[in-house]
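Researcher: I'd like a structural prediction for the single chain below. Treat it as a standalone chain; there are no partners to consider.
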Amino acid sequence: MHFDFLAIRSCEDFYRCFIEQSGIAGESGANLDTLWDMLTGELRLPARAWLYHLPSVPQRGDLAAIIELLEEAVRELQGEFIVQRVQVCGG
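Model: Treating it as a single chain, here is the predicted structure.
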């Protein structure tokens, strides 16, 4: 799955992108609990999420909780779910 934070500006944007790429049937009322359930119970593993243009901590705003949850899923799923942060240089 690929998430470009130049295009993802809100939690709703992230949830929409996650549903589109995960292969999981659409969930209504997307929130952190639903995302956790999808990551730990419904997502086909192994899986990898590529995070492009990830904002710095002060700029994350509402997305901070989602990013923290992804990091927690990495620890919980012990190598079955990987988050790869990609620094893209313009130029």
